[in-house]
Amino acid sequence: MSAATDSAFQICINPDCRSTFSVDDTLVACPECGSLLDIGYDWDRLPVPSSLSELEARWSNRRNPLDFSGVWRFRQLLPFASDEQIVTIGEGQTILRASDSVSKYIGLNGANALLQYEGLNPSGSFKDNGMTAASTHARMVGAKFAACASTGNTSASLAIYSSAAQLFRVVVFVGSGKIAFGKLSQALDYGAHTLQIQGDFDDALKQVRDVCQREKIYLCNRVNPFRLEGQKTIMFRVLEALAWEVPDWIVVPGGNLGNSSAFGKAFAELKQLGLIDRVPRLAVINAAGANTLSQLYNNQSLRWNEGRTDDELINGYFAEMDAAGHRANTLASAIEINRPVNLKKCLRALDTCDGVVREVPDDAILDAKAQIGAGGFGCEPASAASVAGAKLLREEGVIAPSDRVVCILTGHQLKDPDATVGYHQSSPGQIADKLASRGIQAVQFPNAPQAVENDLDRILDVIRSFNA
Ligand SMILES: *Cc1c(COP(=O)(O)O)cnc(C)c1O
Ligand SMILES: [Zn+2]
Which residues pair with 290 in a beta bridge? Predict the structure, then answer.
């Protein structure tokens, strides 16, 4: 065993349990108590960098794929694998860019809105940050077959790692009729076995967990603690882009709550290691149609409570939801999730980062998305919940105009072209109908294509009207 894996372990997040297990075990929950697992490190025995800029310097050594990777150049901060075991396809070449127009839309001074564009990853979403880590772990344990349930991006990401690394085959479970076409096309093109389950993401996840347990298939869902280790690096890259200055806010859409959980862990560890002196505040944004976290956190005051969460409250909430037959329902399909698997870890992150939770309706999400696009970024609907949430928090006065606010754009625009075209082209269509069924008649920033006769004069008339 390498020095790295020797000093890393899996540890139960339940403070009354805290059982530890080897990183060579394949676990999706604590075998003692059923709680979620973390990856823990014996930092005293590891070569911790003396400053964060040391890790930034590695990028100049980009012929080494591990230093080129925006995840693994930070590998000293997620040291669970030895270098030879790491599976990388050049993920994490992302940018943080300031946007004047989005700042204005949110109500921030100058260019205080900073957009972290994770759509630039190989499969077009932030999921690659986590999947490179899970693929690495799958290789460590010699897995030959891996699986996930997905609203789309996780399956696209797992599929690309499987086809690029050729170490394991994959089967992905998606809900029927729920997946955006860009994402489905990726799973098919990368050659993943694709099962469309009659039901939604929550149904698909339950099935895949049972299947993996019975068939000893490697499970790549967010219950997999290794994925969150990779996702910590999104925050490392944000800090790197800000010359290691901590921003005031991180705003992220919340679905299964893996990202928010990983961000909280990243900041807690950086603080513990003395690499930063303060943590930013965290805002997690639900879609109004998939608002479990917002309901529990804001209306029922559920808190981390040092790991002693009120499980009766949580279970009661889910029981009521099931009894009422209540299903997640939002156009932001990547966050259309009512049973967030990382709920407790997210509560911990909110505790670490003095966090807030909000929910935003679909029309606010789509209007924000159009503003993001017009500002020179493209994203899928779920991503725009971050900007819509920041705008709401600004209106409430929780975020100040002078705050520096990082919004995470989690997925690429081309993931869900139906949503984009449906928004801009107000004529009846799938999205327009779905919007109408939610009482949204008018979108704020439509940009419909104009039909013109195949005639030069008519075309010139239209062109000249743009300048009028
Ligand atoms: C998965 C996903 C989310 C939700 O992230 P969680 O970590 O599950 O909260 C948001 N946006 C996009 C584009 C995603 O693919
Ligand atoms: Zn336990």
Answer: 287
Query: Topology of domain 95-122+228-416, per CATH?
Result: Rossmann fold (3.40.50)
pLDDT in tens, 408-439: 999 999 999 888 988 898 655 566 677 777 66
- Give per-residue pLDDT as tens, 211-222: 988 888 998 887
Ligand nearest 345 Cα, by number? Answer: 1
Rounded distance between C-alpha atoms, residue 148 and residue 319, angstroms: 25
> Does 411 sit in the ligand 1 pocket, CB within 6 Å?
yes
Query: Mutation test of ligand 1: which of 36, 117, 125 has the most ligand atoms closer than 8 Å to its C-beta?
Result: 125
What is the arrangement of strands in the sheet containing 145-150, beginning at the earlier edge strand? 193-197, 169-175, 145-150, 218-219
Of the listed ligands, the closest to the CA of 38 is: 2
Question: SS3 of 319, please?
Answer: helix
Instruction: Delimit the domains of the chain by residue range.
Output: 95-122+228-416
Report pLDDT for 174: 85
Q: Give the pLDDT score at 431.
A: 66
Q: How far is CA 228 from CA 154, 311, 373, in A?
A: 13, 23, 28
